[in-house]
Specification:
- It is a single chain.
- The protein has about 700 residues and is of the alpha+beta class.
- The chain folds into three domains: about 5-165; about 180-405, no CATH class; about 430-694, no CATH class.
- Helix content is about 45%, strand content about 15%.
- The chain has 23 helices and 19 strands.
- It has an eight-stranded antiparallel sheet. It has a five-stranded antiparallel sheet with strand order 8-9-13-14-16, with helices on one face. A four-stranded parallel sheet has the order 2-1-3-4.
- A hairpin with a 2-residue loop joins strand 11 and strand 12.
- Helix 1 (about 5-30) runs antiparallel to helix 2 (about 40-60) and helix 2 (about 40-60) runs parallel beside helix 4 (about 95-115).
- The longest helix is centred in the first third of the chain and has 26 residues, at about 5-30.
- The radius of gyration is 26 Å and the shape is globular.
């Protein structure tokens, strides 16, 4: 059953409830049964719900797609207007404003409810009346509490949120899994298939916020020659195919692939879907999480529009703290296990994700609002154990060793006045000669395979000084420590990497500026002992503790410590030269930046959950550095072996003094000196760097 049929039947089963809820909410705009200042909150929120109900009516009747571009833009701005930066200081979506007007007890609770209700925008566009109905009923339940003679105890409100999340976890969690693995769901696929390059109205059909950025990207891509679109899509889908080939995994046994992209890239996505179909894969297009229980503070997990307000998203990233307790997580885990069993066949057919990332926006500098929800220490520990259990469950139905992925990135107009030139340069960087770089990188691998450990030192103000321990090679003629990574799962090409031995891996890692997700970290510093993080800091906030918390949340993913799961040397000097030429190094995503210098990943190794699958370099040697002292514990207790995260941190060439290996006999094996590659056979890599100085 496709999504149109599914929701049509669902809608009829709840239509009477929806109508009754809407009638009740409509009365709130005139009633005076709730005391001030809460009355204003309920009235304004009721008006928003009415707008989403009208949007649902437009979508269900088909009239939404008959509106003009100007009418659609006006509707989009009206639905998202309250949280736009220019209105946010007086929005109930702003925790600080909510607390200021509604008080410290009720403000945080009602701002959570307000944010959850904003999911009605996309539910209305997708005609998902069940979700809209249950949110309306929750809103009425809370309103009724405020109609009583005395104000409700905050715990009564919080209990209502808990039971809502628990009672509807089956509906929400099961459908979330389904939309991630079921190619028969066609809402977004039909938008892409029916797009008209001359008519940008399709961008508004998703229900996501649409800014001038998405419109500009769509206009630009829709104006490119077809051969350019083909080249972009072919690189992307061929990288996906190669990911299976180089790991010896069987793509022919799979039937679906999930695409991630930002609105505006539909023309490329459309061609990619055709390419995947030729590989025997049906495309899955699912939206990023909408419910608080589905959102991922660390990244995107589907297609998405512009952020109406990054501060709003930051303020609400931990809204699930309202109801997050063991009784809820036990319930959700049971529901999820049942859902995996229901969709067992779809899970088995799923080949993995293929992501199109974007970059170019200026670094986001969040404000830490004490009024926003945050996980307690107890909740953080619970979340880590729940995530570990969820990953084990997923690996049972979608084994890591049977899937692959690919990621590619392109700039947005916010990159600057040279956007079109930079876009062309990125295409060039993404399509460098696979075979040529494979040969060049093999020289680096051969040199490093002679080493017992590697030393990485910074230059100038960068005080990086790290020793990285390597696995001993029992049979150097047949074994290697470093993977020769070209353009498959991570596009563009250009790195050699390993999973270090933790014992003896120690020192300081510094980088002046690096993007991790949506956050630009300034003067990031981390210290390690025996491969584990021992301290960390950055300069994002004047308050050092706030800065530490940002690192803990976004890089350590709320763990007390993490191991170094990867050490790599990026070789894509062409990407680095492009960044320097246009002054955009601080705007590049980690996907490209990691190829422009040495990088370290904290968390799991690159081979997480597929360590027992043999991996070979192009020269036939087996990669033996697939485990470390933590991941090997999977044979005893997977819960302590994996951290379920892998966060890359790159030092650009300009901040590198030297990288060299050291043999067991103490011989120094230089790889980079004064920012230049010095291994014989790697001279090609210095050409782009030398051109910068001419």
């Amino acid at each position: 059953m496709n999504d149109q049929q599914f929701w049509k039947e669902e809608n009829e089963s709840v239509r009477e409830r929806f109508t009754l809820s809407l009638e009740r909410i409509g009365l709130m705009e005139q009633e005076e049964t709730t005391p001030m200042p809460y009355r204003d909150y309920f009235r304004r929120t009721a008006a928003f719900i009415r707008d989403t109900a009208e949007t649902f009516s437009l979508a269900e009747s088909g009239r939404l797609r008959q509106l003009s571009l100007e009418e659609l833009a006006g509707l989009n701005r009206r639905l998202y207007g309250d949280i736009l930066p220019e209105h946010y200081e007086e929005s109930y979506g702003n925790p600080s404003y909510a607390v200021r007007l509604l008080g410290a007890e009720y403000g945080p609770l009602l701002t959570y409810l307000y944010a959850e209700l904003r999911g009605q925008i996309v539910f209305a566009h997708e005609c998902r009346l069940t979700e809209m109905t249950i949110l309306n009923e929750l809103f009425i339940e809370i309103y009724n509490l405020f109609e009583e003679e005395e104000l409700p105890a905050p715990e009564r409100i919080r209990d209502a949120f808990f039971w809502f999340a628990s009672d509807y976890s089956e509906l929400i969690a099961e459908y979330r899994l389904r939309e991630q693995v079921d190619p028969s769901l066609r809402f977004a696929k039909e938008i892409v298939a029916g797009m008209d390059a001359e008519d940008l109205r399709y961008l508004y059909f998703y229900g996501e916020y649409v800014s001038e950025e998405e419109l500009a990207v769509a206009r630009f891509l829709n104006g490119l020659p077809q051969e350019t679109i083909d080249r972009m899509a072919d690189t992307y889908t061929e990288g996906y195919r190669k990911g299976f080939e180089v790991t010896g995994r069987n793509l022919s046994a799979k039937g679906s692939v999930r695409l991630y992209y930002e609105l505006g890239f539909e023309r490329m996505v459309k061609k990619a879907m055709e390419n995947f179909a030729a590989l025997g894969l049906e495309s899955i297009l699912c939206r990023c999480g909408v419910w608080s229980m589905d959102k991922n503070p660390g990244g995107k997990g589907g297609y998405y529009g512009a952020s109406a307000n990054k501060q709003y998203e930051y303020d609400h990233r931990y809204d699930h703290a309202v109801y997050y307790q063991k009784a809820y997580t036990d319930r959700k885990q049971a529901v999820l296990a049942s859902a995996y069993e229901t969709y067992r066949d779809l899970c088995a057919a799923y080949a993995g994700p293929a992501a199109i990332e974007t970059f170019g926006e200026a670094g986001f500098e969040p404000v830490n609002r004490p009024e926003a929800w945050a996980l307690t220490e107890k909740q953080e520990k619970l979340a880590l154990s729940v995530r570990s259990a969820a990953m084990q469950l997923m690996d049972r139905y979608i084994p890591e060793e049977e899937t692959s992925f690919t990621i590619i990135a392109f700039p947005k107009p916010s990159i600057g006045e040279h956007f079109e030139e930079i876009f062309g340069e990125v295409i060039r960087v993404n399509t460098l000669d696979y075979e040529l770089y494979k040969k060049v990188q093999q020289h680096i691998v051969d040199r490093l395979d002679q080493a017992e450990y590697v030393v990485v030192k910074g230059a100038g103000e960068n005080h990086t000084d790290l020793r990285v321990s390597l696995h001993p090679l029992a049979d150097p003629a047949r074994q290697s420590n470093f993977e020769n990574c070209v353009a498959d799962v991570n596009i563009p090409l250009g790195e050699v990497f390993t999973s270090p031995v933790l014992a003896g891996t120690a020192g300081v890692l510094e980088v002046s500026c690096v993007y991790i997700g949506d956050f630009q970290f300034k003067n990031l510093r981390m210290e390690f002992a025996d491969g584990m993080v021992t301290s960390y800091a950055c300069d994002n906030f004047a308050d050092a503790e706030h800065s530490r918390q940002l690192v803990r949340q976004m890089i350590l993913k709320n763990h007390d410590t993490l191991p170094i799961g990867e050490f790599a040397i990026g070789t894509n000097t062409a990407a680095y030269a492009m960044a320097q030429k246009y002054g955009i190094l601080d705007r590049l995503p980690i996907l490209i930046v990691e190829k422009t210098g040495p990088h370290f990943a904290v968390g799991d190794t690159c081979y997480s959950r597929s360590e027992d699958t043999a991996v070979y370099n192009p020269d036939g040697k087996e990669l033996i550095a697939r485990d470390n002292e933590r991941s090997i514990l999977r044979r005893e207790d997977p819960a302590v072996a994996y951290f379920n995260c892998h966060t890359d941190i790159t030092i650009p060439y300009s901040e590198i003094g030297e990288i060299y290996g050291v043999t067991a006999a103490g011989e120094k094996l230089p790889v980079i000196e004064a920012g230049r590659f010095v291994v014989p056979g790697t001279e090609l890599l210095n050409e782009a760097l030398e051109e910068l100085e001419e």
